[in-house]
Amino acid sequence: MASPLPPSPVGVHVRAPAKINLALKVGAPRPDGYHPLATVYHAVSLYEDVFAEWAEPDEFELEVTGEGVADVPLDDNNLALRAARLLARVHGGQDRLGVRLTIRKSIPVAAGLAGGSADGAAALLACATLWDIDLAPEVLRHLGAELGSDVPFSLLGGTAVGGGRGEDVAPALARGSYHWVLAFGHQGLSTPAVYRRFDELNPDPTPPEVPADLMNALRGGDPYELGAALTNDLQPAALSLRPALRRVLETGLELGAVGAIVSGSGPTCAFLVEDEEEAIDLSVSLSAEGVARKVLRATGPVVGARVVA
Ligand SMILES: C[C@@](CO)(OP(=O)(O)O)[C@H](O)COP(=O)(O)OP(=O)(O)OC[C@H]1O[C@@H](n2ccc(N)nc2=O)[C@H](O)[C@@H]1O
Ligand SMILES: Nc1ncnc2c1ncn2[C@@H]1O[C@H](COP(=O)(O)OP(=O)(O)O)[C@@H](O)[C@H]1O
């Protein structure tokens, strides 16, 4: 069969954001092993860049550069490669498609910020654009859910409620823009290990519900209210596996953060501050304290995966 002609453009650049969970309520494991969640995702301005270029039919190539590359799988376990193969298989029709993917990582690996999911989401969108496969956003999100629980949100972005195992996303009614300071650890945490520790610590958890105070705070747009309402059921499990995180959280609060939380399964600590000036002050002071490997500022909410060029 003849290989399809490269449609224009020949290369596509997609950018996808990191997430933090403003609320993460976790229930008892389901028969399939996943935990039912009621979560509020929030996309922040730290991005993965994924480039997709036309390649020979059936050729799926990957190059990864940037933050934490040594810990990124380069084989078919990589979420970006899996995304490309999945899209080609399900929506490629009779065409024998191929792609050369390049990921420029800025989101630390296994940090609780969904960097791998951002790569999967970005690769889906980049390949769909490159191969001229026109899919509705909800169809793309449905495909994303096959790659991982956080991938649909990486495509959606903004602030959104997540149900099911996290893959069932809907935009939340939210006002305002928030300033965050993110403190990264020296070593990642395994998401399955943190869920396992959650099970040990919570033999009989209550069914998860999105907290009303957090939704009210988001409707009001006041960072102080939001800071007080941040909640993460996985935080005790992450602290139990990485006790040093307690000091990071306490230090950020002592230095003026209006809220502090472990992001998802950790180990990144996210600090909410009042405004940009406070964000600059806190990031400088936290760096000086030496409690984290690296400290960065970010704002949220930002849009989900999007074509840049
Ligand atoms: C904890 C969260 C919070 O948003 O994110 P991270 O902090 O890892 O970024 C997510 O639930 C992670 O989502 P994601 O990293 O996409 O997980 P998946 O690839 O779907 O699943 C990886 C593993 O995590 C566990 N898992 C994941 C989701 C879920 N609702 N229950 C689970 O028990 C399972 O052990 C599963 O095998
Ligand atoms: N493109 C990718 N980038 C980073 N990690 C990936 C990628 N694809 C698969 N992974 C695997 O997913 C794991 C979790 O990755 P990541 O999304 O960075 O963290 P988290 O789930 O804590 O948000 C990594 O340890 C790695 O084995």
TrEMBL record:
Entry coiled-coil feature ranges: none
GHMP kinase C-terminal domain location: 216-290
Active-site residue list: K19, D150
Alphabetical list of InterPro entries matching this protein: GHMP_kinase_C_dom (IPR013750), GHMP_kinase_C_sf (IPR036554), GHMP_kinase_N_dom (IPR006204), IspE (IPR004424), Ribosomal_Su5_D2-typ_SF (IPR020568), Ribsml_uS5_D2-typ_fold_subgr (IPR014721)
GO biological process: isopentenyl diphosphate biosynthetic process, methylerythritol 4-phosphate pathway; terpenoid biosynthetic process
Domain GHMP kinase N-terminal: 78-158
Catalytic activity reported: 4-CDP-2-C-methyl-D-erythritol + ATP = 4-CDP-2-C-methyl-D-erythritol 2-phosphate + ADP + H(+)
SUPFAM superfamilies, A to Z: GHMP Kinase, C-terminal domain, Ribosomal protein S5 domain 2-like
Keyword Cytoplasm: no
Keywords from the named record: ATP-binding, Isoprene biosynthesis, Kinase, Nucleotide-binding, Transferase
The keyword Zinc belongs to this UniProt entry's keyword annotation: no
Enzyme class: transferase
Pfam families: GHMP_kinases_C, GHMP_kinases_N
EC number: 2.7.1.148
GO MF annotations in UniProt: 4-(cytidine 5'-diphospho)-2-C-methyl-D-erythritol kinase activity; ATP binding
Superkingdom in the source lineage: Bacteria
Pathway noted in the entry: Isoprenoid biosynthesis; isopentenyl diphosphate biosynthesis via DXP pathway; isopentenyl diphosphate from 1-deoxy-D-xylulose 5-phosphate: step 3/6
Chain positions recorded as ATP binding sites: P108, V109, A110, A111, G112, L113, A114, G115, G116, S117, A118
Sequence similarity: Belongs to the GHMP kinase family. IspE subfamily.
NCBIfam families: ispE (TIGR00154), PRK03188.1 (NF002870)
HAMAP family associated with the record: IspE (MF_00061)
Function: Catalyzes the phosphorylation of the position 2 hydroxy group of 4-diphosphocytidyl-2C-methyl-D-erythritol.
Protein name, per record: 4-diphosphocytidyl-2-C-methyl-D-erythritol kinase
Naturally occurring in which organism (per UniProt): Microlunatus antarcticus
Chain's gene name: ispE
